[in-house]
Amino acid sequence: MMSSVLLILTVCLSGYAAGLEALSQSVITAFLSGHNRMRSALNLPDLVWNSTLVSVAKSHVVDCHYIKIEDGNFDISPRKERDNVDIANDAMTMWSWEVNNLDPKWACIYNWSCKRYSQVVWRKTKSVGCAIVHCSRYDVNLLKCEYYPPGNVVGEIPY
Ligand SMILES: *[C@@H]1O[C@H](CO)[C@@H](O)[C@H](O)[C@H]1NC(C)=O
Ligand SMILES: *[C@@H]1O[C@H](CO)[C@@H](O)[C@H](O)[C@H]1NC(C)=O
């Protein structure tokens, strides 16, 4: 019952945004290998893909409202031309560059300068799920990833 209500809601909302199709295996691989490259450089265990988190991420991008994505690992890119593998790979590259902003106390988490990287390399996080939507309204792609257990816990450091 609950899941059919959610399904109907998802189908209706997706009218606002083109291309909230399920991610192909190659996009999932791009996300996972991007995350796990950053983690294995620190000897952190790999993340696995989590379809429950994909649904949460989808719910945050489906109506193309930026405001709902900015509290986590997100990316915004111009809509022209790009396929989801490129969008995922570019986001992984940008997030990895945040390693250059690290400071010894991880204060950078709280002014955004390393917040996406710090979540990727959060030791206690075990799984990730992401969604990409192509928003004709603003001519952008929105991308968001969700994590379990979530990182960037106030008062803790990533690893
Ligand atoms: C963010 O915080 C770090 C650590 O305190 C600092 O080095 C950096 O300059 C800050 N960046 C911005 C954009 O405020
Ligand atoms: C996937 O995410 C859900 C919801 O956040 C969580 O309950 C579940 O334990 C996660 N599964 C894995 C393998 O991390």
From TrEMBL:
Which key words tag this protein in UniProt?
Signal
The opening ranks of the lineage are: Eukaryota, Metazoa, Spiralia, Lophotrochozoa, Mollusca
Q: Gene3D superfamilies of this UniProt entry? A: CAP
Q: Which PANTHER family match?
A: CYSTEINE-RICH SECRETORY PROTEIN-RELATED
- State the Pfam families in the record: CAP
Note the SMART domains from the entry: SCP
Family matches, as InterPro entries: CAP_dom (IPR014044), CAP_sf (IPR035940), CRISP-related (IPR001283)
The name this protein carries in UniProt is SCP domain-containing protein
The leader peptide range reads 1-19
Q: Which domain of life is it from?
A: Eukaryota
Q: Per the database record, which ranges form the SCP domain?
A: 26-155
The protein's organism comes out as: Lymnaea stagnalis (Great pond snail)
Q: Does the keyword Signal apply?
A: yes
